[in-house]
Amino acid sequence: MNVVSVINYKGGVGKTTLTANLGAELAARGRRVLLIDLDPQASLTFSFFQPTQWERELAEERTILQWFGSVLDTGPTEPLEKYVLTPPVVNELIGRTGEGRLDLVASHLMMVDVDLDFAAELGGSRFQHGSPRFLSLHRALADELAGEAFAGYDTVLIDCPPNFTMVTRTGIVASDHLLVPARPDYLSTLGIDYLRKKVSELTRDYNRVAGTAVARINPTILGVVFTMVQYANNGPIVSQRNYLNQPDTIEAPVFRQSIRDNKTLFAPAGEQGIPAVLIPDGNPHVQYELQQLASEFLAKTRT
Ligand SMILES: Nc1ncnc2c1ncn2[C@@H]1O[C@H](COP(=O)(O)OP(=O)(O)O)[C@@H](O)[C@H]1O
Ligand SMILES: [Mg+2]
To answer: Atom 23 in ligand 1: which residue has the minimum CA distance?
Structure first.
């Protein structure tokens, strides 16, 4: 099983869109995929469930908010598998072609508060290393995913919020790899370096506390995926081409396949509960790019 966090400090770079489409494409190819929405914005959740249904059936008892609540409580942590949902519309489409499945752990708009509770539990952000719960809280998600209940999944994709708070850290600690969507521009590439630094710090701190008592972590950057690439005259616009053609300027591997900007296709995708890559009679250019990206992802994660 591969656990991959989709992460970038910036919002609006296509993290959620990539998570939904990559997950859907892998499931359509017969894989068992679990998506975990850690972002309080819950865009991934709303890509598969209508807000009214979320409000009515999921919000109170069936989201990651309640699970994190049990992590922070003094009582036993609830099994995460209790919160796994199988979004019906997309799986109806996936089920027609094979054995694949796309499951989801939904998020909640109140997840913002969980970070504050975490900080309180760890004695504030400055004294985290000394806290007796440092390891167990950081490992909360990793421990669940290592359990028997999740052994049947081939891939877990975690959609992270655009920050580096405790919730994000639990995602990174649980991950073998990080996938970094970014726009091909200056500020976005700067952000990637900063992210690398923060992940190295977390890895170092965690492993120092872990010592020999628990398994060490080593989340590596699988690659940067350039998203929202703007095309003109059959090629990316000049200002973006520099970033696309010179991956050496970024100190991280870069996926060969990028995803073009296409507002008409991506904007309404969530409303139908089907990611763009699987929409019947969808845009062939965009679908091809997403399929190629999935192939590259599989090649890079094959062990
Ligand atoms: N390749 C793309 N072309 C055009 N619009 C896109 C593309 N990818 C994502 N979007 C749109 O941009 C917005 C932000 O994307 P999203 O995936 O939610 O980013 P993030 O998760 O990083 O905040 C959404 O409205 C989404 O529909
Ligand atoms: Mg998002």
So the answer is: 12
Confidence check: pLDDT of 244 > 70: yes
Instruction: Please choose from 6, 7, 17 the residue to mutate so as to test ligand 1's pocket, defined by most ligand atoms within 8 A of CB.
Output: 17
Q: How far is the CA of 107 from the centre of ligand 1 (A)?
A: 18
Q: What is the pLDDT of residues 90-138, one digit of tens each?
A: 999 998 878 999 999 999 999 999 988 888 888 766 556 778 889 999 9
Q: Which atom of ligand 1 is found nearest the CA of 228? A: 1
* Range(s) of the domain holding residue 8: 2-301
- In CATH, what number is assigned to the domain containing residue 93? 3.40.50.300
The pLDDT value given to residue 270 = 66
Neighbours of 139 (CB within 10 A): 19
Domain count, the chain: 1
Q: How many residues does the chain have?
A: 303
- Give 98's DSSP letter: S
Q: pLDDT digit string (tens) for 11-51?
A: 899 999 999 999 999 999 999 999 999 999 999 999 999 99
Ligand 1 centroid–CA 276 distance in Å is 11
Q: Region 71-95: what's the mean pLDDT?
A: 95
Atom of ligand 1 nearest to the CA of 229: 1
Question: In sequence order, what DSSP letters do the residues of 156-222 get, joined into one string?
Answer: EEEE--SS-SHHHHHHHHT-SEEEEEE-SSHHHHHHHHHHHHHHHHHHHHHHHHHTTTS-----EEE
Mean of per-residue pLDDT scores for the chain: 92
Which residues approach ligand 1 with their CB closer than 6 A?
A: 11-17, 43, 227-228, 259, 261-263, 266-267
pLDDT at 127: 54
Which residues have CB atoms below 5 A from the ion given as ligand 2?
15-16, 43
Q: Of the bound ligands, which one is closest to the alpha carbon of residue 287?
A: 1
**Ligand 1 atom with minimal separation from the 267 CA:** 27
Contact 103, 34 (CB under 8 A): yes
